[in-house]
Every structure is written in structure tokens, then in C-alpha cells.
Carboxypeptidase regulatory-like domain-containing protein (Gemmata palustris), 141 residues
Amino acid sequence: MLHSFIRASAVASAACLLLAGCGNSGIVSVSGTLTYKGQPVTNAIVHFVPEKGRPSMGETDQNGRFTLLYDPQTKGAQVGKHKVFVMHNSAADAGKPGSVPGAAPKLSAESKDLFSKYSADKSKIEVTIDKSTDDLKLAWD
């Protein structure tokens, strides 16, 4: 009986170590501002993808501010080096007055340039998260 309990505990401990975020150790708070050519970027989703593990992402507000989410219940990102890229948050544009349901939102030339230049397959931006980061400045041009 004791042998079965020890074996079950060992299996549970091993599974916990293998699952990302067991107790969310190594996850720290990350927030900041995204600007492009000196202007805040709105309606963007900022993605932080670690070398290993689960990515985090956050939506920018009207001032370009974002807070990363590790999962729906946990704010933050995994400690370590991350590739950073952005995508347009077309869902944010869908509810605006004058928007046509199902139609692609019209982006300015600068917005198109930003979302193309810093897309998942083109971005060369890397950021290392090593502590709670309350004012990360992503100032791109």
C-alpha cells in the first residue's frame, strides 16, 4: 500500500515537472508600451514566444499599453529570452461605428508596414525577461 502511494506520488511529481507552468514558477509580471515611429500602436496583439515553453500575449490599448497574459488566469511571461512579434487585432476594429461586418479593416500605410515588418515570420526582435517588468518600452521604427 505504501509502495503504491510512493509510486503514485513520484508519477504525479514527474508529470508536474513536465507540464509548463506547474505552479507557474518562473512566470513574472510584464507590461509596457508599444510605439512605432514615435506613435502609440493601438489594436495590436503583442506576442512573446520563449525559446522553450508557453508563449504570452497582450493587447494594446489606445495609448499602446499592454499587459502580457501567460494563460487566461495568469498575467505575465516566462523568464528567459523571447522572440517578439505583433499582429493586428482586427476584432477590436469590428465593433467600431462604420465598420462593415466581415470586411477587412482599412489600415494606414504605416500600420501595414508595422504589421508586415514585425510579423511572426519576419520579426528579429528579442527581449529577455528576467524579473517583473512594469514598464517595458517597445519603441520600434
About this structure: The first strand starts at residue 27 and ends at 28. Residues 41-94+106-141 form one domain. Residues 2-18 form the longest helix (17 residues).
